[in-house]
User: Which sequence fits this backbone?
């Protein structure tokens, strides 16, 4: 598939947009309204001596390594995520679906080009410096398929689909060439997750699972800790990568909370085993909230009698772990979901937006963005895509366009910004000038 470049039409992007709280900000006329993904432009550039985007390994910058501070380790700490040169990590950007594009493009072999087009739009035009790269795999070529037109070609996890894994490497490499940009690799849907509706990581029963993952998996069935062993081995030397172990666990009870933490701990051991063998610093492991598809962080730091009662992974003493809320909820619920926990633990907002059927409105989403900026919390918002969930997609197919334009580059695919996409763009440009 030819590389897709992005061209913002009716740009005026350099002008200062209204502040996020000002009336009329969403409909600001000086912002681009149409985006074109045009493979033909690069075909012509290549014929004239141009080149494809840089997917070579990025230059190594040791200052990009991140560490966390929490009051669980140091009562005097200011909770947060920090770079090696002591900068507060408060980067912001969108959730970007992987090359399978929310099952839209799974009927093609995985390649990085279309995803890189969306990454470049986010970073070069929207001023993002944080990409939440959402990874998906499926249990078969047809089960749960969003469209029955064609069976999936690319659907298995990184353990069984080398082309898919290579496409992720290419994407992470490309992001690494963007100054100051980080990427959260996160399992959103994985064939290794438990099949009981909770979407929990599956693990083996050994005390140190990281050293026990076989090179061949009978029936292409493997546990989540082995998926993370492969990802950690692949990206161990990348300081700008964070590891999101399970983006949307769907527990509902306190018993589920305890079990999820146990499973997180097993996966964390696997990752730390890989890092120890590779001789790299530990990456930040991102643990999602325990209930409501990752919304609530209260389990990890429960206030009892004015003091926090912590539930944290035992691996590494809970060091270099951050906690992610996906708060598709009304602003009135924010304190319970994550603000209280943020007094003690490093947090990030991993996924949010005015999702239809949830309590979060557009006003709630914009309020959350402002709150994250004020408190120095990193954030990612759903979703830099036109075909995942219409209520939180930031792009929409223009008239006459289809998913085929998105996936195979058969024509210049034209997309418009949704009201949510336009609102997020304005907030992001204001926060990341």
Assistant:
């Amino acid at each position: 598939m030819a590389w897709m470049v992005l061209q913002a039409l009716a740009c005026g992007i350099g002008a200062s947009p209204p502040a996020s709280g000002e009336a009329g900000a969403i409909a600001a006329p000086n912002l681009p309204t149409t985006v074109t993904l045009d493979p033909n432009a690069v075909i012509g550039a290549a014929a004239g001596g141009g080149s494809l985007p840089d997917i070579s390994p990025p230059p190594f910058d040791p200052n990009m390594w991140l560490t966390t501070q929490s009051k669980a380790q140091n009562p005097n700490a200011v909770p947060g995520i920090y770079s090696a040169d002591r900068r507060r990590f408060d980067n912001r950007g969108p959730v970007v679906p992987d090359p399978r594009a929310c099952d839209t493009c799974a009927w093609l072999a995985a390649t990085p080009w279309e995803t890189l087009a969306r990454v470049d739009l986010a970073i070069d035009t929207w001023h993002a410096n944080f990409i939440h790269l959402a990874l998906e795999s499926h249990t078969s070529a047809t089960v749960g398929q969003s469209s029955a037109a064609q069976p999936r070609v690319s659907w298995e996890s990184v353990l069984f689909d080398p082309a898919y894994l290579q496409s992720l490497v290419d994407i992470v490499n490309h992001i690494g060439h963007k100054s100051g940009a980080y990427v959260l690799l996160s399992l959103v849907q994985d064939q290794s997750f438990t099949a009981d509706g909770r979407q929990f990581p599956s693990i083996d029963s050994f005390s140190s699972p990281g050293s026990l993952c076989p090179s061949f998996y009978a029936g292409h069935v493997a546990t989540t800790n082995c998926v993370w062993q492969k990802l950690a081995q692949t990206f161990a030397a990348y300081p700008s990568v964070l590891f999101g172990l399970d983006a949307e666990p769907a527990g509902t009870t306190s018993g589920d909370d305890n079990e999820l933490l146990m499973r997180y701990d097993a996966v964390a051991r696997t990752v730390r085993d890989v890092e120890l063998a590779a001789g790299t610093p530990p990456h930040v492991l991102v643990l999602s909230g325990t209930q409501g598809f990752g919304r609530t962080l209260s389990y990890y730091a429960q206030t009892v009698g004015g003091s926090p009662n912590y539930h944290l992974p035992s691996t590494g003493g809970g060091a270099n772990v951050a906690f992610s809320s996906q708060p598709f909820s009304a602003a009135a619920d924010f304190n319970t979901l994550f603000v209280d926990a943020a007094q003690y633990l490093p947090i990030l907002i991993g996924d949010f937006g005015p999702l239809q059927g949830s309590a979060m409105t557009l006003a709630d989403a914009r309020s959350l963005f402002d709150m994250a900026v004020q408190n120095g919390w990193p954030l990612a918002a759903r979703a830099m895509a036109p075909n995942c969930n219409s209520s939180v997609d930031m792009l929409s197919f223009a008239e006459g366009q289809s998913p085929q334009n998105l996936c195979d580059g058969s024509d210049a695919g034209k997309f418009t910004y949704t009201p949510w996409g336009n609102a997020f763009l304005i907030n992001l440009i204001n926060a990341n000038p």
Observations:
- The CA atoms of residues 227 and 413 lie 34 Å apart.
- The two ends are 33 Å apart (CA to CA).
- The first helix runs from residue 39 to 47.
